[in-house]
Design brief:
Number of helices: 13
Structural class: alpha/beta
CATH class of the largest domain: Alpha Beta
Radius of gyration: 24 Å
Mean pLDDT: 93
CATH architecture of the largest domain: 3-Layer(aba) Sandwich
Strand content: 25-35%
Shape: globular
Bound molecules: adenosine-5'-diphosphate, aspartic acid, magnesium ion
Strand order of the largest sheet: 5-8-4-3-11-13-14-12
Number of strands: 20
Low-confidence stretches: 6-10, 12-18
């Protein structure tokens, strides 16, 4: 998928004393809070300069300044609630254009040979799903040429070019994916995701100050954490890192750029996302994730016959409504049952209206919906071989008086739907019961 033409490019080697020193190829990504103003952009430039001065080939990916994308999204909604996704992309991609230019200016001022590039100029090709596009290909040779010229390419994250020749965006948090995809395309030795925390924690450190930083986390667990709400990495970026074996670190841009160890090639400070077999001491539970703003919809007394689930979830999928947890009871008499599922809160009204409109075909007595739910999830590859993990969660939550509305499990996770008001309590309770609290 991603053109790896860069991977074969000759990598210069230098000898210092008796040691061999490899000139590495590094992709550095900086998120919104890291480029929130000019002072922060200067700080980011110092991180970049450190790697350049060490002799590495560097490409940089930037997000929009903190809050900018939200503002742009808000403007498109204000202009019209039902807007054209191609124009949404034209608007929201602009935030990254600004920061790429600003960082290039600051780097140039520091004497670093830098130039900004937009997605279409590389080009970063995507499919046509405007607003949530997937990268379909990146020709690494463009960037390899820049490396050859000793240039630091500063690339606008989150954006690409769709088959209709228009700007596309990759979905919220998409700059992570831009960075990993670029790292794969140029055969980078490392992709560093710089953010406002110094790594991946056992849970969101903003909710649980006792959360611990993980030195390493497996791709599978990171995928679950990200898709179950830990927005530290976009899900797609973890998938790409896993498939293309990109050595990805999550680290902090707020660390002093020239502090000892910051330029360490093998073990920079932060969390490495890696294969399971690279992790020596694995615990049963690795982390707790949460997602707020879920809505629960229940259809009461639905006909219990083949085709009913397809009749309900088919039209919801066609309407692009993402259904998550599904719970169906075995009916007592074989004729009627209850069907409960969750959707993002923003889609709840649309889902209810749609189900009402097809009520005659499906056949149910009543529809109920509750908003303000949260999904709290326990994640760990150790669960594959340990029993009783779920029972521990249920007991701990019941002792705190947290009512469980729905449960889903997979091999390496348990997700529990609760009232949103109990999110913090549930996260902290589970974090502590599995022994994840910092000592
Ligand atoms: P950026 O703007 O750099 O992309 P994000 O806001 O997208 O940053 O992601 C970083 C945030 O992710 C952190 O500030 C933190 O609150 C949140 N987060 C959620 N879960 C975790 C976790 N398990 N470990 C680290 N951070 C997490
Ligand atoms: N600026 C975009 C967003 O806020 C992309 C990113 O930050 O990764 O979603
Ligand atoms: Mg992000």
């Amino acid at each position: 998928m991603l053109n790896q033409s860069g991977a074969e490019a000759p990598r210069a080697r230098r000898v210092t004393g008796n040691e061999f020193f490899t000139m590495a190829r590094i992709v550095m990504k900086f998120g919104g809070t890291s480029v929130a103003d000019i002072a922060r952009i200067r700080n980011v430039a110092r991180h970049v300069k450190r790697e350049v001065d060490a002799g590495h080939q560097v490409a940089v990916v930037v997000s929009a300044m903190a809050g900018k994308t939200n503002e742009l999204v808000g403007w498109t909604r204000e202009a019209s609630p039902m807007h054209d996704a191609r124009e949404y992309d034209a608007v929201v991609a602009s935030g990254e254009q600004v920061t790429s230019g600003l960082l290039a200016i600051v780097l140039q001022q520091m004497g670093v040979h830098a130039r900004s590039w937009q997605g279409w100029q590389i080009p970063i090709r995507t499919d046509g799903a405007h607003g949530a596009a997937r990268i379909t290909g990146i020709d690494g040779s463009f960037l390899v040429k820049r490396f050859g010229e000793g240039q630091v390419a500063v690339i606008a994250g989150f954006q690409g070019i769709a088959p209709d020749n228009r700007i596309s965006t990759l979905g919220r948090g998409g700059s992570d994916t831009s960075a990993v995809a670029i790292a794969a395309a140029v055969g980078a030795d490392r992709c560093d995701i710089y953010t406002d925390v110094d790594g991946v924690y056992t849970t969101d450190p903003r909710i649980e100050p006792k959360a611990r930083r993980l030195a390493k986390i497996s791709f599978e667990e990171m995928l679950e954490m990200a898709s179950l709400g830990a927005k530290v990495l976009q899900v797609r970026s973890v998938e790409l890192a896993m498939v293309h074996k990109v050595r990805t670190f999550v680290r902090s841009s707020f660390d002093e750029p020239d502090a000892p160890g910051m330029g360490d090639l093998e073990n920079p400070p932060g969390t490495l996302i890696c294969d399971e077999d690279e992790i020596v001491e694995s615990q049963v539970v690795t982390g707790i994730a949460y997602a707020r703003d879920e809505a629960q919809i229940s259809l009461r007394r639905v006909a219990d016959r083949p085709g009913v689930a397809a009749g309900i979830f088919g039209p919801l999928a066609e309407a692009n409504i993402n259904v998550d947890m599904i719970v169906q009871n075995i009916s007592e008499d074989g004729s009627r049952t209850d069907m409960t599922f969750t959707v993002p809160q923003g889609d709840a009204a649309k889902a209810v209206a749609l189900l009402e409109s097809i009520r005659p075909e499906i056949g149910f007595d009543a529809i109920q919906h509750d908003e303000g739910m949260a999904k709290v999830s326990v994640i760990g590859i150790g669960m594959r071989s340990h029993a009783g993990v779920a029972a521990t969660a249920f007991r701990a939550l019941s002792e705190k008086g947290v009512n469980i509305r729905a449960i889903t499990t997979s091999e390496i996770k348990i997700s529990i739907l609760i009232d949103g008001a109990y999110t913090e309590l549930a996260v902290r309770t589970l974090h502590s019961v599995y022994g994840l609290d910092k000592q």
